[in-house]
């Protein structure tokens, strides 16, 4: 016994009525050639009484003729061709109930006239039946809140496609970008975008130029809005990481209205917060949600980007959380300018990017990041409570530390392990620290004459006329300063390694300033050499950066000492105890 | 693990481990707990795991000791559950600051991890 067809359903659908999950029979299906990778079929379907040929099926790999299906999700779409408006029934979701081998009943073709005659019979009597105009879509400009209360059907974000344009979605703004400007050969302008979400999914919505101005202040993060008549197009995955094949553009005919009674049906933005201590293990470039108390805040820094030559503004904020770990979060542009770190606000960032700088991990906001200050959510109150009670006073590890002695961010290795593990093959180099003894500091070619400008350490060219030229500053100076670049061999029980040391760190090893060393070498090279020899067999903790570099097609591991420290034996023995405990399984 | 001194071997132990080293040569580090004046033949130390030990010396103290860390080498005596050491020698570190925690950890490690470098078979 085949399921009962929803007789008359097609007529009601074509009249814009909503019929829940109507059951129809497919009389004929034909595959349509299209560029899209999804298959599409044109269908002739019947509800037993009427049949229509303007039906399309997508997302399904074909159905047999005479199958009886339940239309789980469908839309009525208008295609305006040259003269008249064609209504197309687009079936997005369906279920095949059973297959048949013949047509049920004798359906009649559902024409515009039939539809018109039925609507006219219900609505005001229309005398002119020949020139019947298809019913206009409801005047959306009227009020979506109002019209929706008249049971207008709300579409789901995941169901939006470019193939139908008559929809309204009810969505929460989960993210709003800054206003951005662009300028290229085709012109310039500005834009901003919002990320919308409902229970079915998410989509990005972008507004350009005047419309960007119009809606920028109107659309606010976390509020719910009705959206209608946006243009849909395939998403550009280069800029859009949302899980949707499409994105929308706000056009002139777009209607957006705030949903006045947020009934909570549209889900709240969900965060998956990562404890700051776990950021240490994350890969550079990962996007994470993070919440922390602003412990310190730096002043605004203005600088010019080297790559794009653009003026940039940034501000560093130190965040701390219950994992007793702190990290530097870099804010950019207007976010940096407007940030107020007074009274240790709680800072929430959705989609912060993990970075690495000088061996420490950092966070930074990117275009898609969303920042909130003191958000009214449970996590915020928890962390604030923790901070006020205990966090303010407790010691925290700084994940972003570049030079300090914290042992957690760069791995402890013995020199042989550096070789065995093949360090230095990552693009940005690998950092490690080791306790080693200076075996030899090479005094030859250890000093050079550098530009006397404080921040410029470029080697100067001796013009042999008492002047020294710096290529970087493009200036000539009557003087120069000495700087050190020492090649040094360090060793531990496992092996030894040549490393390079620059002025700052070499001075710590030698116990003399670069200038003192330079002058000593100039006066009396024996006395100068003695300074270097004095350093032999001293023990330090070296923090190093290893990077494989290619010279003349030959790969060489280059290791630069980024920090030298005197050995804190108590701390180091603690580190060794920890390692032994891990290796043996005996708790210390 | 043991250390060699004047031809003898001493096991490095903490207070809690002493009972299993009775009658054996041990090396214990502790802080002098009570003022001991020059000439005394006995003193009390608190080990790195905070156990009080009585140290009986074989020659009188040559200076006053109080609050300093010292290493005592000698035989662990059977009386009072091994809390007496008959010292053969002692060394004062002349220092009130000592990484007691690490030393205590060391005692645990050296007496529980087999010595892979030892020529003798255990």
Automatic annotation (TrEMBL), chain A:
Gene3D superfamilies: Nucleic acid-binding proteins. Residues 431-575 form the Replication factor A C-terminal domain. Residues 5-98 form the Replication factor-A protein 1 N-terminal domain. Pfam families: Rep-A_N (PF04057), Rep_fac-A_C (PF08646), REPA_OB_2 (PF16900), tRNA_anti-codon (PF01336). It comes from the Eukaryota. SUPFAM superfamilies: Nucleic acid-binding proteins. Residues 116-134 have a biased composition (Polar residues). NCBIfam families: rpa1. As part of the heterotrimeric replication protein A complex (RPA/RP-A), binds and stabilizes single-stranded DNA intermediates, that form during DNA replication or upon DNA stress. It prevents their reannealing and in parallel, recruits and activates different proteins and complexes involved in DNA metabolism. Thereby, it plays an essential role both in DNA replication and the cellular response to DNA damage. This is Replication protein A subunit. It comes from Zophobas morio.
UniProtKB/TrEMBL annotation, chain B:
The keyword Disulfide bond does not apply. It comes from the Eukaryota. It is found in: Nucleus. One of its GO terms (biological process) is nucleotide-excision repair. This is Replication protein A 14 kDa subunit. InterPro entries: NA-bd_OB-fold (IPR012340), Rfa2 (IPR013970). Keywords: Nucleus.
């Amino acid at each position: 016994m085949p399921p009962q067809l929803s007789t008359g359903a097609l007529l009601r659908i074509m009249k814009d009525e909503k019929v829940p999950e109507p059951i129809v029979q497919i009389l004929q299906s034909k595959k349509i050639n299209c560029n899209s990778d999804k298959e599409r079929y044109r269908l002739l379907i019947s509800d037993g009484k009427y049949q229509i040929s303007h039906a399309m099926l997508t997302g399904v790999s074909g159905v047999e003729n005479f199958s009886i299906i339940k239309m789980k999700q469908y839309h009525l779409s208008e295609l305006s061709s040259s003269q008249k408006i064609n209504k197309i029934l687009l079936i997005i979701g369906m279920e095949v109930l059973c297959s048949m081998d013949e047509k049920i009943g004798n359906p009649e073709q559902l024409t515009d006239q039939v539809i018109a005659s039925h609507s006219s019979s219900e609505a005001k009597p229309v005398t002119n039946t020949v020139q019947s105009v298809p019913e206009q879509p409801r005047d959306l400009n009227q009020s979506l809140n109002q019209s929706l209360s008249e049971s207008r059907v709300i579409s789901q974000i995941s169901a939006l496609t470019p193939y139908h344009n008559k929809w309204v979605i009810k969505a929460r703004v989960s993210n709003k970008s800054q206003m951005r400007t662009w300028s290229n050969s085709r012109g310039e302008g500005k834009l901003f975008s919002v990320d919308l979400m409902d229970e079915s999914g998410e989509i990005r919505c972008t507004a350009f130029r005047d419309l960007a101005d119009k809606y920028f202040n109107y659309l606010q993060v976390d509020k719910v809005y009705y959206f209608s008549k946006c243009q849909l197009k395939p998403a550009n995955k280069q800029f859009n990481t949302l899980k949707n094949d499409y994105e929308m553009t706000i056009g002139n005919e777009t209607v957006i209205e705030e949903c006045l009674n947020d009934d909570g049906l549209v889900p709240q933005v969900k965060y998956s917060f990562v404890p700051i201590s776990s950021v240490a293990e994350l890969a550079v470039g990962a996007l994470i949600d993070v919440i922390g108390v602003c412990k310190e805040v730096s002043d605004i820094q203005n600088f010019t980007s080297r790559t794009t030559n653009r003026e940039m503004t940034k501000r560093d904020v130190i965040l701390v959380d219950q994992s007793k770990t702190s990290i530097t979060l870099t804010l950019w542009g207007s976010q940096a300018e407007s940030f107020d770190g007074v009274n240790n606000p709680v800072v929430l960032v959705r989609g912060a990017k993990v970075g690495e700088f000088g061996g420490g991990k950092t966070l930074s906001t990117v275009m898609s990041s969303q920042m909130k200050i003191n958000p009214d959510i449970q996590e915020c109150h928890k962390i604030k409570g923790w901070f006020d009670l205990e966090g303010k006073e407790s010691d925290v590890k700084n994940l972003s530390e570049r030079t300090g002695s914290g042992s957690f961010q760069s791995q402890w290795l013995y020199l042989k392990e550096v070789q065995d593990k093949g360090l230095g093959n990552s693009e940005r180099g690998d950092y490690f620290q080791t306790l080693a003894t200076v075996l030899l500091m090479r005094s030859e070619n250890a000093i050079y004459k550098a530009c006397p400008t404080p921040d410029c350490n470029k080697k100067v060219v001796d013009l042999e006329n008492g002047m020294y030229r710096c290529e970087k500053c493009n200036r000539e100076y009557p003087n120069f300063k000495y700087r050190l670049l020492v090649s040094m061999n360090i060793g531990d029980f496992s092996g030894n390694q040549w490393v390079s040391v620059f002025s700052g760190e070499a001075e710590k090893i030698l116990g003399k300033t670069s200038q003192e060393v330079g002058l000593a070498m100039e006066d009396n090279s024996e006395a100068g050499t003695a300074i270097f020899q004095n350093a032999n067999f001293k023990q330090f903790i070296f923090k190093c950066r290893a990077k494989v570099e290619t010279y003349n097609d030959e790969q060489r591991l280059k290791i630069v000492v980024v920090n030298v420290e005197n050995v804190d034996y108590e701390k180091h023995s603690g580190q060794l105890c920890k390692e032994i405990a891990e290796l043996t399984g005996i708790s210390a | 693990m043991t250390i060699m001194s004047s031809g003898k071997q001493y096991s490095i132990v903490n207070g809690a481990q002493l009972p299993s080293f009775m009658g054996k040569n041990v090396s214990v580090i502790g802080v002098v707990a009570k003022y001991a004046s020059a000439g005394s033949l006995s003193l009390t130390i608190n080990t790195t795991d905070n156990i009080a030990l009585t140290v009986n010396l074989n020659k009188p103290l040559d200076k006053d000791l109080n609050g300093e860390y010292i290493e005592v080498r000698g035989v662990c005596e059977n009386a009072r559950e091994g809390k007496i050491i008959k010292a053969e020698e002692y060394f004062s570190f002349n220092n009130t600051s000592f990484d007691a925690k690490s030393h205590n950890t060391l005692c645990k490690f050296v007496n529980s991890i087999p010595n892979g470098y030892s020529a003798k078979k255990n």
